[in-house]
Design goal:
By secondary structure, the chain is an alpha+beta fold. The protein is built from 9 helices and 23 strands.
């Protein structure tokens, strides 16, 4: 059938428009090796958004060797000719993209992968990495001078990876701005217990080894993933409000219990659910291991990890992180006060709840404990720098900021703000400016001077 002249012109016009769109689209290119976080420029990766991790790791405590196979489902955010993953020290033996073997090169902790064809923008793809070796923990001034990451214990391994150690045991886009869901399968010698994030899907024996499958169905930052293995006494149940709870405690610590970890975890989870908004995950709990070399605890998503039996204050701090840090994660590491300041302030709220000390008095005690010339007042809380991102000032001055805010806007607005914040950014990422905007919206007041005084400048603010 012949086209009329007007139809032919219309077809030509449509074809020209289509050509212009194609011509305007960026040419396929490599993804960036990092997202450009000022503290960790090479961590995370550009050009794609990780959607799901399927981790399959097998660990031999006798040799300390880990063998892994990780499949990442991701969505291309640009048309990619190649892309990077983060992996520290371990040897890669094979990589497949969409089921086809892919070429790769390595430079330090960066793996550059070149698929056989272009990965088109907006389309999902899978990358499977087979790797192995002896994972090495990190150390240095960042985390209180302690080792962190994949840490060998006498009977297994303690895994706590903030801020940059998830890639010591699995290939990833290792930055909290790229959250994903997880299936984690752990193979370990029979008689050991493997604990991870989310809920337990299955466990079965295979020869002399046990395979344990955990599933975290809520988005999670890489540093919050764990595969802690060892001998544990496990107690499960529900909190008084009905939230499933799973607590694993190393039996070597049985006689060092100064606190009922299970009871405090249950009580605090339910209380924070009233103050901060609904509990964001499928399960709460704790992992308590005998790991003296790690002098810290970590807000592992759904099950905070403690390197020894800790006190009630530490437990309520790490559980508050399930809202502030885990569900609502930082966009960049400079905003770490949104995690640590909020969790420290939760300790003050807990003392107030228990009737032992008001948050106002906790504020005055923290403020009065340091004179004006101490280093505590010389850190800019809203951008503390990499090596001092976990300095006490970030924790306590962050908490002071929240108490100053509470006293400025009043309890009614303040206790509307906290659950509004966790609801608005649930399972996502946010920064300091986002919090200030919301605080001003909820309170109906301009608050720039308050935040300038407490977190954007150094020096001891006048009361």
């Amino acid at each position: 059938m012949a086209l009329s002249r007007s139809a032919r012109l219309g077809a030509l016009t449509a074809a020209a428009a289509s050509f212009l769109v194609i011509a305007a689209s960026p040419a396929p290119s490599p993804g960036a090796p990092g997202i450009g976080d000022p503290y960790f420029p090479q961590l995370g990766n550009g050009g794609f958004d990780a959607r799901h991790y399927a981790l399959d790791v097998s660990y031999d405590p006798g040799t300390a060797r880990l063998d892994g196979r990780t499949t990442i489902t991701a969505r291309a955010t640009q048309s990619l000719t190649s892309f990077d993953l983060d992996l520290q020290k371990l040897e890669v033996t094979r990589i497949e993209v969409n089921g086809r073997r892919a070429a790769f090169t390595r430079e330090g902790d960066e793996i550059r992968i070149t698929p056989r064809g272009v990965l088109r923008k907006g389309r999902d793809f899978t990358v499977t990495v087979t790797y192995g070796g002896v994972p090495q923990p990190l150390s240095g001034p960042i985390v209180f001078g302690s080792k962190y990451g994949w840490m060998k214990t006498t009977d297994g391994v303690f895994v706590a990876c903030e801020p940059n150690a998830a890639s010591t045991w699995f290939p990833s886009s290792d930055h909290p701005s790229d959250k994903a869901t997880y299936d984690i399968r752990i193979t370990a010698p029979k008689g050991l217990t493997a604990v991870s994030n989310g809920r337990l899907v299955s466990t079965y024996d295979k020869g002399g080894r046990t395979v344990t499958h955990w599933r975290e169905s809520r988005p999670m930052a890489t540093y919050l993933a764990t595969a802690t293995i060892g001998k544990f006494d496990v107690r499960t149940g529900r909190t008084p409000s009905g939230i499933p709870i799973y607590v694993a405690i190393d039996p070597a610590l049985a006689h060092s219990n100064t606190v009922d970890v299970y009871a405090v975890t249950a009580e605090a989870t339910d209380y924070w659910s009233k103050v901060f908004g609904p509990y964001p995950f499928e399960e709460t709990g704790a992992i308590v291991d005998d790991m003296p070399e790690a002098g810290f605890s970590l807000e592992v998503q759904s099950k905070p990890a403690y390197s020894a039996v800790r006190n009630e204050t530490t437990i309520v701090h790490e559980l508050a992180h399930q809202w502030f840090g885990d569900s609502v994660s930082v966009e960049r590491w400079k905003d770490i006060w949104l995690n640590e300041g909020f969790a420290t302030y939760a300790q003050w709220l807990w003392a107030e709840h228990k009737g032992t000390r008001s948050a106002h008095d906790s504020f005055l005690a923290a403020y009065g404990a340091r004179q004006s010339d101490t280093a505590f007042w010389q850190i800019k809380v809203a951008d503390p720098q990499r090596d001092t991102m976990f300095a006490s000032a970030v924790y306590e001055r962050g908490a002071m900021t929240l108490q100053a805010l509470r006293e400025r806007i009043g309890d009614t607005a303040f206790f509307r703000l906290l659950p509004a914040w966790t609801a608005l950014h649930r399972y996502g990422n946010a920064g300091t400016e986002d919090f200030i905007r919301l605080a001003e919206k909820v309170s109906g007041r301009k608050l720039g001077d308050l935040f300038q005084k407490w977190i954007f400048t150094t020096g001891r603010p006048a009361l």
